[in-house]
Amino acid sequence: MRITLLGLLIWVFSFACYAQSSKTGNWFVYFGNQKISPKINFHNEIQYRNYNLIGDINQLLIRVGIGYDLSKNNNNLLLGYGYIQSHFYDSTQENKYHTNEHRIFQQYITKTISSGYYFLHRFRLEERFIPNDLQYRFRYFLSVNKPLNNKTMQPKTIYASAYNEIFVNTANQLFDRNRIYGGVGYVFHKDIKAEFGFMMQSTLKKNQQQFQVTLFNNFSY
């Protein structure tokens, strides 16, 4: 297991070293999901995204939503709202301006476990209220977690994590972006875990690299 963990850490930090040749950002992410009844959950998240490791804000993103379990812990429908403040540099690359975006989104999440791998599929439709415009976007997210020192995702478990997410617009240019991520996480409590990883984001215009530090807070009913 130690050899596997060492290999994963080398893999993550090799991406980080590669990214030092370009401007590498950092995302601090909090995901919360609290049960308010046996079937209903409250989703809440905050993401603070930087152009560099810290201090040069790129985006502030806040999402909330109410979900309903179609089956216990495995299939969930959710209706949510998001506020996104994005900061951009002008042509001089010295001055910044910002825009505010409001989103309504609908999503379906399904989870499965197979041969010790924890899979999550998320299908999301977004209505994006951008200044003077309304845009629609579809997102498909697939993640997998693999416990390394235990058979299940119980407390004190170290695990490997990976995901890929593709974004598709409904008009104009269909392909919006793709994100691929790899990292290592630790389960502190049955409802609390944290991850550190590296993500590469590709668009038609450019590629970006980000470190990602994530805290998950999922309290059961």
Mean pLDDT over the residues? 89
Taking all Cα atoms into account, the compactness measure Rg is: 18 Å
CATH architecture: Beta Barrel
Characterize the largest beta sheet: strand count, sense, and whether it forms a barrel: 11 strands, mixed, barrel
CATH topology: Porin
Shape: globular
- Beta content: over 45%
Series of H and E elements? HEEEEEEEEEEE
How far is the N terminus from the C terminus? Answer: 34 Å
Give the SSE layout.
Layout: H1 2-19, E1 24-35, E2 40-50, E3 57-71, E4 75-89, E5 96-114, E6 117-130, E7 133-147, E8 157-169, E9 175-189, E10 192-202, E11 207-217
Parallel strand pairs: 1-11
Antiparallel strand pairs: 1-2, 2-3, 3-4, 4-5, 5-6, 6-7, 7-8, 8-9, 9-10, 10-11
Give a written overview of the molecule:
The longest helix is centred in the first third of the chain and has 18 residues, at 2-19. The protein is mainly beta. The chain has one domain: Porin (Beta Barrel), CATH 2.40.160. A hairpin with a 2-residue loop joins strand 9 and strand 10. The chain contains one helix and eleven strands; from the N terminus they run H-E-E-E-E-E-E-E-E-E-E-E. It is 8% helix and 68% strand. An eleven-stranded mixed β-barrel has the order 1-2-3-4-5-6-7-8-9-10-11. The chain is globular.
